[in-house]
Design goal:
single chain, mainly alpha
């Protein structure tokens, strides 16, 4: 996983942000994927991937937790 890959996923979440539930699922999946890649040593720049993934929190959509 590269920071560019994470940026592309963030852009997908932004495009889906009109559907809060879908965007929230995509965000959760992205965060899990980044953590998995870092844990498995598959991230080319782990710190940059993490920083990029956290930018998803800046996207405006409703986040619901049960």
């Amino acid at each position: 996983m590269t920071p560019e890959h994470v940026k592309a996923r963030i852009e997908e979440i932004e495009r889906a942000s009109m559907d809060s539930e879908g965007a929230h699922c995509m965000e959760d999946t992205l965060h899990q994927d980044v953590l998995r890649a870092i844990g498995e040593g598959a991230a080319t720049d782990p710190a940059a991937c993490a920083r990029e993934a956290l930018k998803s929190r800046e996207i405006k959509f409703a986040r619901w937790y049960a």
